[in-house]
Design goal:
Length: 458
Amino acid sequence: MLDGCTPWPEEFVDRYWAAGHWRGYTLDNLLRGWALEYGPRTALVHGDTRLTYANLNRRVDRLSAGIRLRGIRPGMRVVVQLPNVPEFVVTVFALMRAGAVPVLCPLSHPAAELPELVRVTQAVGYVAPATHQGVDHMAVAADIAARWPFLRRVFTLEEPGSASPYGGLTTDPAGCQYAPLGSVDAPPEPALIQRADRPAFLLLADGGGTAGTGLVPRTHDDYAYQARAAAERVSLGGDDVYLAALPAGSGLALGCPGIIGTLSVGGTVVLADPADPGACLRALRRERVTLTSVGPATAERWLEALPAAGAGPGGLRLVQIGSEASVPPVPRTTADRLGAALGCDVQQAFWMAEGPLLLTRAAAPGCGDTVPAEPGHHPLSPDDEIRLVGADGRDVPEGEAGELLARGPYTARGYYRSSGHDARSFTADGYFRTGRLARRAPDGGLVVTGRCGELPTG
C-alpha cells in the first residue's frame, strides 16, 4: 500500500511509462504549465465571474500557502463538499499543491453519512458552504468534530456579499477551528516536491458508495492520462467551451474529459450553479458552449425545458450522456431526441470512479442507418484490458453476456484502505470486477446490459 493506494505492479508501471500514458507530473504542477502556456485565456466562468489561467494559478498558489499555514500537511485528507463554483476548482488544486488529498464528496451525499466518511479517511479538514439547500453544514461539522478529534479545521464558503458567521478564525469547544475560505490566503511558498504515483484525490465509488468500502484513490499519473486521453477522443481544443452541468466532483464532469481535460488544452470551463435546466440552457447560449455532459435524468429534464427555452444553441457540437449508475445505457431514443433538439452530436459514456471509461462513437442527428441501432461502448485506452466472465470466473463465449472486468493505465488497483473489499472486487491478477453485465456489440464495442446479481468469487 502506498498512502492507502494499491500500486500497479512494476511490469505495468514500465508498460504505461513506455507507452507515454504516464508522464510523472502532478495535476497541480500541470496547472502551472497550463498557466504559463494559456495565461491570459479564460479558464473558469461562473455567472459574471471570469478567471484567466494566470489568475487561477495565482489563487491556487495563495490558497495552498494559506492551507499549509493552518497546519494541513502532505498526505492529510480534507473533505471537499462544494457546489459548482470557482472555489471548487481552486480548492481542489490548492490542496493537491499543498500535498494534501482532497476527498471529493457531492453536496447530495447524505449528511448522516459524513461522520463515517471523515472517520474512514481520518480527515483533518472540511470545506463546505455554511449552509446549502437547508442543510447546516457547519452544524454537521461541529457534530463530527465532537466525535472525532482529528477533524480540526473547517473552511466555509460564504455567499458573495454576506457576512461570515465567524467574522474570522474561531475555535469551538471541541477545539475545531472555523474560517471563511476567502480568508485562507498567504504569499506563495516554494513548490513541494511530490510524486505523481501518489493519490491526487479520493472519489466515492458507485455515485456515492459506502465510505468504509467505496473510496477510490486516483493518482496524478492515472487521472492526468484519463483526462488527456478523453480530451483527445472528443477532439477537444483551446477554442472549446465546456459546461459543467453535473456536480464538478463527479467523474463525468471532472475528467471524462470534463473540467481537467478542458483545462489541459486551454479551453474554458463554465460552472453551472444553479444547474437547473433553464439556467444551463441559457448558459449554453450565452457562453457559446461547445461541449457538455449530462446524466440520463438531466437529459430528460433538458428535453422538457427546451420548448420554453426556444431554439437550441448553434455552438454546441457534442453532448455526452452517461452515468456510472446508468445501467442499462441511456435509451437510444433519448440520445437521438436530445441531439436533434440541440443540433449536435451525442456520445454515450459508461464510467466508474474506479477507472473504466467506455465511450460510444459520437452520433450526429439525422444520420439514420449509418449509426448502429445498438452502438457499442469502446475503451478509452489502447492498453485497456477487458474481459467478460461468467459466475465461474472464466471468459464467456462470444456473443454471451458476462461480468465486465477491466484493468489498465487509469483503472485503480484497489480501494482506499479496504483490503476486504479489494479481495471481493479485484481478481488476483489485478482486474477490477465492475459488477456490471456486458456483451460484445456488432461494432466491436461493449453493450452494458445491467448489474450482476452477485460478484463472482472465483
